[in-house]
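Field: COMPLEX_INPUT
Field: COMPONENT_COUNT = two
Field: RESIDUE_TOTAL = 223
Field: MODE = joint
Values follow.
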Amino acid sequence: RKEVEQDPGPFNVPEGATVAFNCTYSNSASQSFFWYRQDCRKEPKLLMSVYSSGNEDGRFTAQLNRASQYISLLIRDSKLSDSATYLCVVNIFGNEKLTFGTGTRLTIIP
Amino acid sequence: DAGVTQSPTHLIKTRGQQVTLRCSPKSGHDTVSWYQQALGQGPQFIFQYYEEEERQRGNFPDRFSGHQFPNYSSELNVNALLLGDSALYLCASSLGRASDTQYFGPGTRLTVL
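Field: COMPLEX_OUTPUT
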C-alpha cells in the first residue's frame, strides 16, 4: 500500500465550479499535512497546511480526519489559474522527509 | 531574498555516465533535502543533509550520493546512470533538521539516453 494515495485524475471542471480532492495516508504516526500545487514543469509550491480543526484560505478549504486518515481540499469558484497538479503531502513528526502522493491533475475549462 | 537555486536547469547524459547537480538553499536555511520526481509521479525523498552530514536516506541505491558544504550548499551525485534515472531532481531547503516547512528550487531535469 502506498504511504499517500490520491486519485490522479484528470479532473476537468468548468470555470466557477467547486471541486474537491481527497487523499488518504497509511501511517497513523503522521503529524503534519499539506497541500502543494505544482504547475507544469515547475517546482511544487506550498498551497496550505492542513489542521485537525480545518482551515480556510480564500477559496480554498482543507480538512483532516485523523480517525479515517483522510485529507481533503475544496476549491470554490474555480479560476482558470487554478489549473495545476495538486499534491497531498504528509510528514511524520521528527522525520526529515516529506512524503508525497502522486498528485491530482486539475484543468479548469473556460 | 534569494530563494532556492539549482544548476544546471537541464542535462542530457548517456547510460553509465556520472552526473553532479548543485543546489544553494534559501538565505538563512541550513538544511538541504533532495527529491526525485519521475514523470507523472510525486517527488520521492532521496536524502537530507544537515551540518554537512547525511541525516536520513530514502529508498535509493548507493549510486546516489551527496555532499553539503560549509556554506550550506549541496551537491547530488549519481554514478553509473540508468535510463530510469531520467527525472526532475528537486532540492528543498529548510531551517533545522526536522522542519516540515521546505522550500523547493526549480529543479534540474535530467535525461539519460
